[in-house]
DNA sequence: CTAATGACATTTG
DNA sequence: ACAAATGCCATTA
């Protein structure tokens, strides 16, 4: 299993209504290649399978999207995530950390 | 193998 | 707070 497949598998595990960051994704894979994570998501062949729109930058901004960041915003809003000025609202609460159980009550 | 690239991150001006 | 510069790691040419 190469690095990209790991990234995609992990991305598929992001639950509905939550988001994660490239850095946390790489950290969960025990690697530091956050940029390579974004690179993998960019050319992922599992476009509809992998919820790439739930992956954002570490500071809460959206980052990029293959089919346009506007589309990314729409997808996230469909999942109940509010976007303000290209930034995720309550990002700290929405962000998921793999390996740690998150509190669902505040969402 | 070497060089260039990117949906990034961190530091600096 | 914003923009530029630098560092980073896997992938690709």
How do you describe this structure in short?
The protein has 107 residues and is mainly α. It is built from 5 helices and 2 strands. The chain is globular, with a radius of gyration of 13 Å.
Instruction: Note the beta-strand portion.
Output: under 5%
Note poorly predicted spans. none
CATH class, named Mainly Alpha
Number of strands: 2
What is the helical fraction, as a range of percent?
25-40%
User: What's the name of the CATH homologous superfamily?
Assistant: Winged helix-like DNA-binding domain superfamily/Winged helix DNA-binding domain
CATH architecture designation? Orthogonal Bundle
Global morphology: globular
Q: How far is the first residue's CA from the last residue's CA?
A: 34 Å
Mean of pLDDT: 92
Q: Work out the count of structural domains.
A: 1
The radius of gyration over CA amounts to: 13 Å
The name CATH uses for the topology is Arc Repressor Mutant, subunit A
Number of H- or I-type helical stretches: 5
Task: Return the string of H and E elements.
Answer: HEHHEHH
Quaternary organization:
single chain
How do the strands of the widest beta sheet line up side by side? 1-2
Main sheet characteristics? 2 strands, parallel
Structure class: mainly alpha
